[in-house]
Design goal:
heterodimer; A: 387 residues; mainly alpha; abc type-2 transporter like fold; 18 helices; 69% helix; B: 260 residues; alpha/beta; Rossmann fold; 4-stranded antiparallel beta sheet; globular
Chain lengths: 387, 260
């Protein structure tokens, strides 16, 4: 036990002295999430701004005074579309849809011929596509008004037009709505754990072997198990340290949020940061062990790095599972390292209280993985050196 | 006191192969009968050509892998039965002796001292002592990153000796050292052998005749994985009927070469 502690202290000091590597891990871990959050918020802010501006871009509206009058009564400001609006929409230079009104609109309307208006957009141009809804609603309103007037003139009750009254009721809490946007955040915490543990795990196994310092280390009368546990402790702690900084970085990041509504929805305080961090413990334990087990068989740091890409890819793809499976969370998610943490962190973001039966599977799997991996590393160390 | 009795070890290796064909397995007999007796207060040399099986033998002594057959004991403790106890009685400078580049020489030495069960203060005091013996005070508190070959070797040696072991095992310790460093190492080993230095049992492997002639009380000649002759330098000269030690070594290790 004492020997494990000595190895732990040395590995930690050794890793912390590697300032350059540490800095290269910390910078992306600390900046990526907040940067993304800020970019996301400015996108939402620009959408909100457009809704507030109540502007509508149109072609040929001057020849349709009735429609123009209606739109202006809805307090919309009408802007003329550029001549090459189609090309601009395709090239994503124009970021709002265009209402196209035919020349004979007024005449057809008067004749009761239902003229066709077009809302031109490009579904590959997301910002423009998002603006279709408001224009559609304005046009529905116009239809409704025309129909009601016609009915009223013929002495028919307007209510005939609305045999069913439709009202929406949104069950999502404010926080739950925000998670649609912030569901990408847990991935950054998971990657922080991985990157924090990665270089230390490889350095303390394959790196030590490459330097030729593993053989002398094993010639000390310390049980292999103690050496491995000490190394693993340091690796896992580094992963946890980077995870802590990464999850704390979201707390000040939300002050940068430009969108008021997102700011109101995204509530990430010290409590959430702590919950995020605690949830990473089993992941850090399991991943550290797994990385060490993969690396101990590699002769060089480079070989170990190539081997670890598999884990890095697998872990970074776990959030994709939730995206690809819109049928909702399955119970097995909680048993897969990475995916379990992702699911639980999303629950925290939604403001749900975590239950023990949700948390325990991940903890059990994480520590079982660590135990198996450490047993394997302890068994392989001598063989690895001997080869 | 180190006893190695008729140890054997074989490895499997692969031959070279084509683009898609794997190499065939071949059995390599690395060691097939090495015997060595190293008493306390003496320097015992393990002399052999490259690939004779010296390093493999010493690695088995260090418990890195078990011999296929034979017996190894350190101060009467069988390495196979209680490797950790045996390791505690040995200071080993192996074939690989990498340092931790981000730790200072002192930290490298103290780390191993702590793993040998020493208290931090005792390990630090011992590092100073060894630095004096090996003339490395000037580099003691520098990081190992920029060390020269000789400085690395000295640090590794100090690290192996930190717990003041009764048995010292060195695998080609003079490799890559210049004349002055080699002389200093020789002096240090002589002192460790003397009663004032603790009367240690020292085993060291080499392929350099000079080393053996100047330092060893007893020599074991190893060739093709077997120990083929043993005795003091004059005794080996007598046995081979030669006047130069190099001739004696070639006669004893490669009789077929001499006959041809």
């Amino acid at each position: 036990m004492k020997q494990a502690w000595i190895v732990f202290a040395k590995e930690l000091a050794d890793a912390l002295r590697d300032r350059r590597t540490l800095l290269r891990i910390l910078v992306p871990a600390l900046l990526m999430g907040p940067l993304l959050l800020t970019a996301l918020s400015s996108l939402i802010a620009s959408l909100e701004e457009r809704a507030d501006r109540r502007e509508l871009m149109a072609v040929g509206l001057d020849t349709a005074p009735t429609l123009k009058n209606f739109i202006e009564r809805q307090t919309y400001v009408i802007k003329a579309a550029p001549a090459d609006y189609e090309a601009q929409l395709r090239a994503t230079k124009l970021l709002e849809p265009v209402l196209v009104v035919p020349k004979d609109f007024e005449a057809q309307l008067r004749a009761g011929e239902a003229p066709t208006v077009e809302i031109v957009s490009d579904s590959a141009n997301q910002r423009a596509a998002a603006g279709i809804g408001p224009i559609q609603r304005v046009l529905w309103g116009f239809n409704q008004e025309r129909a009601s007037l016609n009915m009223a003139m013929r002495g028919v009750s307007i209510e005939l037009l609305q045999p069913v009254d439709i009202q929406e009721r949104d069950l999502a809490s404010v926080q739950a709505r925000a998670t649609r946007l912030t569901s990408i955040l847990p991935m950054f915490i998971i990657m922080a754990v991985l990157y924090g543990a990665l270089s230390a795990a490889l350095d303390s196994t394959a790196g030590e072997r490459e330097r030729g310092s593993l053989e002398p280390l094993l010639m000390n009368p310390a049980p292999p198990g103690a050496i491995v546990v000490g190394k693993w402790g340091a690796v896992a702690l580094l992963g946890m340290a980077v995870a802590a900084l990464s999850s704390l970085s979201f707390v000040p990041a939300q002050w940068l949020l430009r969108s008021d509504s997102l700011q109101a929805m995204f509530q990430f305080g010290i409590e959430e940061a702590l919950a995020f961090w605690l949830l990473q413990i089993p992941l850090a334990a399991g991943l550290s062990g797994l990385l060490m087990a993969l690396a101990i068989r590699s002769k060089t740091f480079k070989e170990a790095q190539a081997g670890s890409t598999l884990i890095v890819t697998a872990v970074s793809l776990t959030p994709m599972v939730t995206l690809l499976n819109p049928g909702g969370d399955s119970p097995w998610y909680l048993w897969v390292p990475g995916l379990a943490q992702n699911t639980l962190m999303l629950a925290v973001l939604k403001g749900e209280a975590l239950r023990w039966e949700q948390v325990l599977p991940g903890v059990a799997v994480g520590f079982a993985l660590a135990a198996v991996a450490l047993w394997y590393v302890a068994r392989s160390m001598r063989e690895a050196v001997a080869r | 006191m180190i006893e190695i009795r008729d140890v054997h070890k074989q490895f499997t290796s692969r031959t070279g192969a084509g683009l898609f064909k794997r190499g065939e397995k071949r059995i390599v007999h690395a060691v097939q009968g090495v015997t060595l007796d190293a008493p306390d207060g003496r320097i015992t040399g393990l002399l052999g050509a490259n690939g004779a099986g010296k390093t493999t033998t010493l690695r088995m002594l260090a418990g890195l892998f078990a011999p296929d057959a034979g017996h190894i004991a350190v101060d009467g403790i069988a390495v196979k039965d209680s490797p950790l106890k045996a390791l505690a009685r040995m200071g080993i400078l192996g074939d690989a002796h990498g340092l931790y580049p981000r730790l200072s020489a002192r930290e490298n030495i103290v780390y191993f001292g702590r793993l040998q069960g020493m208290e931090p203060d005792a390990a630090n005091a011992r590092a100073d002592e060894l630095a004096k013996l090996l003339e490395m005070q000037s580099i003691l508190d520098r990081r190992a990153e920029g060390f020269s070959q000789g400085e690395r070797m000295k640090t590794a040696l100090a690290r192996a000796l930190v717990h003041d072991p009764a048995n010292i095992v060195l695998d080609e310790p003079t490799n890559g050292l210049d004349v002055l460093a080699t002389r200093a190492l020789r002096e240090a080993l002589r002192w460790l052998r003397s009663p004032a230095g603790g009367g240690k049992c020292i085993v060291f492997s080499t392929h350099i005749m000079q080393e053996v002639e100047q330092l060893c009380d007893e020599v074991v000649v190893v060739a093709a994985g077997r120990s083929v002759a043993r005795g003091s330098v004059p005794a080996l000269l007598d046995q081979a009927g030669a006047t130069r030690f190099e001739d004696a070594f070639v006669k004893l290790a490669f009789p077929e070469e001499v006959a041809a």
